[in-house]
Amino acid sequence: MNTPPLAGGAAGPDALRPLLGTVLDALRDGAEARSGPLPAGGPGRVAARLREAAGPVLPETGSGAHEALRTLVYGMAEGAADPADPHCAAHLHCPPLALAAAADLAAAVLNPSMDSWDQAPAASALEARTARELAALVYPYGAPGCTYDSDAPPNDPARSPRTDTPTGPVRPLETAPPEAPARPQGNDRPDALVTTGGTESNQLGLLLAREHAHTRHTEPLRVVCGANAHHSIHRAAWLLGLPEPLILPTSNGTLAPHTLHTALTDLRHPGTPGPPVLVCATAGTTDTGAIDPLPALADLADTHGARLHVDAAYGGPLLFSDTHRSLLTGLHRAHTVTLDLHKLGWQPVAAGLLAVPATAHLAPLAHRAAYLNADDDTEAGLPDLLGRSLRTTRRPDVLKMAVTLKALGRTGLADLVDRTLAAARAFADLIDAHPAHELHSRPTLSTVLFRPAGADDTTVATIRRRLLHRGRAVLGRAATPTGLWLKATLLNPYTTTDDLTSLLKLVEGHTPR
User: Fold this and answer.
1) Among 325, 317, 242, 319, which Cα is nearest to 280's?
2) Terminal CA-to-CA distance of the chain, rounded, Å?
3) Can you list the alpha helix ranges (DSSP code H) found in 89-169?
4) Which residues of the chain have pLDDT under 50?
5) In whole angstroms, what is the distance from residue 195 CA to residue 131 CA?
6) What is Dmax (Cα atoms) for the chain?
7) Mind listing the pLDDT tens digit for each residue in 303-317?
8) Could you give the angle at the alpha carbon of 335 between the alpha carbons of 347 and 410, nearest 5°?
9) Which residue from 112, 132, 131, 135 is spatially nearest to 122, judged by alpha carbons?
């Protein structure tokens, strides 16, 4: 066997071209063979087909590049759940844009490791620039962010947010009006860390809150969240050695301000300052896409001297949209915000971020390893990247995000967001008008809960599994106080009304009689 060529360097593209042809053909052929949103037959049959197609993964003698790519890529594609199919709508699992996937190929070829500048000179500069621009959407130019003194006692005027928040579309930083306040510099500017997604971002948000509490309190940080919060909040508290989060009821799907006020009041015993508290709010729940009342929760956090983290992994990209940005009013008042562009951002996994109002807030993540960020190297001007993540080796996931942002611009991404949310509203209209189906509630984002009228939990679960087993549709399930519902999470901006009508017909056809 010939020595396999490398992907990088000036000769790399010529070595890649014929291989990419094989890959693209296998992707097409596999999708055509599947002919639906996922393979039929269930787990056993899918595993058997892949085993037959792949053969031994580690043979004594290799099969060669083209054969290995053809068989394994075909097997993966034929056996995939394809989020580009409009009937694949169970999860926050988006169809990636072609340009983002192409950019991800470039990242794989260049293969920078984002833990030291000498492994990622341009990639680290691109990450810093892109992270700041995205963070500025969360903490827009002239917005207060967390400009109050978070160490001031409750009810101190220093904790009160400014009232000069700008309204209307967010302007790019370069075109801010001349009367705007001076642009923050250096460590005072909004910033963001690139993460693997919402789970890692939430963990970092809790970590920063824990470290902030350690410097000011002897009691451990108490995390307070609604029952609607993502499970990663609970896992992060466990990983960080924090007490079990205080979980508040969310009977209508969102965290009610009066419920939070009562809980925060109860945490403070008379005559004591009480424990440090982190309130975790959600902007786009996994089950329904609901958004907590952020301004009211931020007010309560201020009043009670608590920090605020907002998990906007799902809803955050509404910031691109002039039409829907107002649903995130109050987001800029959070100390930390989770974002995720492999949901309503159409990026290949992974594409998460954690935004903060100022780079200085990331100081607790500082870490030293002499072979990566020696003091004298940092003093000489080499960027220190270890404090940008809990990981050491990490991919330049920012490249695909930056390519997408530059190619589409804010308005292009806004169009995709608006289309997707419009599809969800159209689907809700179809369900509402259909006497055989029941709509849970009007969608806030792109998640629609529905079920056949009068269906019990067993029937709903059976419909979902039948559709999966036959490879006809991928729908999720959501347990609510009113029982189990089918969940359609629409993330394909090209979904049509005909697609949605046929999805309803599939549900009818797989309903037990």
Assistant:
1) 242
2) 60
3) 98-110, 121-138
4) 142-182
5) 11
6) 78
7) 999 999 999 999 999
8) 35
9) 112
